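To whoever picks this up:

The parser on our side crashed when reading a file containing two proteins. I've narrowed it down to the boundary between the first structure block and the second sequence. Both blocks are reproduced below exactly, byte for byte. First block:
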Amino acid sequence: MEVVQQTKYLQLDTIKQGITSSYVQDYAYILHDKDIKEDGTLKEPHWHIYLRLKDSTDSKYIAQAFNVPEQYVNRVKGKWLDALLYCTHKNSPDKYQYNDDDVVSNFDFSGFIAKTKAKKSSDARLVEIIDGIDS
């Protein structure tokens, strides 16, 4: 799940309380305060909070935990890795690139990203070798 909300509506203490909910398995959050609009001005500072849940949980309960309207809670489209990459915009090179150190998580964020990228890279190489053998 993803929660996105401007800092004027969602404070850090509420985030810290929300991530302690019993259904949260893993979390990662970051403050995006350097994003640029198309007109060249700064976007309003906002939080991106990514949650991996222990079990299926209705978005209304997540909204309640973070004290935000339910419209600011979304199911992540894609994989957990894709959501994590978006924390720092690693998968959006046209956007401001945040540091891994800016992400707060209950797991080794940088290590997870590096390990997953290395696995993808070795998997791609394996596919390349098999395709070479096939041809």
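<<boundary where parser fails>>
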Amino acid sequence: HAKGINAVEEMAHQILKLQAITDYGIGTTVSVGEVRGGMGYNVVPDKASLKVDLRARTQAELLAARAKILGLTPFLQGATVTVTGDLNRGPLEATPGNRALYEKAKKLARELGYDLPGVHVGGVSDGNLTSALGIPTLDGIGAVGDGVHALHEHVVLAALAPRAALISGLLTSED
């Protein structure tokens, strides 16, 4: 036991470093969502791995958090840390085009009799890709509900028709 370098112990230290990158105030989150290590309870684990989800409100924040992840160093003497993978899309930023489209949607929603609050939730969708190309993009104007990816995930049926009317209005308006 004393001759081994416990990869799972090292991973535990790295998880704490990774989770500490999260800063809700600037909209950056790091989540370690999958971990693997060891081959048996009676063997000092020589390998461990984890998967990380990184999200940020702006490209600058995303790149700053990415640099922290790429700069991770071992905690235990003799351990090594290897970071693989990279970003697969940038954030859905509040660009001038996105803000203008939101204002248009907010006005249409008001005309339809409901409020459309603007919220940044740090989600990731194909909208991140279209926005990065300079195409005005809104995300989250579809179904209303709660519990994304959880057992209690649901859609509010009464909200479907008003949301469909909003999307129709956005698609058919001339301005």
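After patching the parser it read the second block fine. Residues 96-111 form the longest helix (16 residues). The chain has five helices and four strands.
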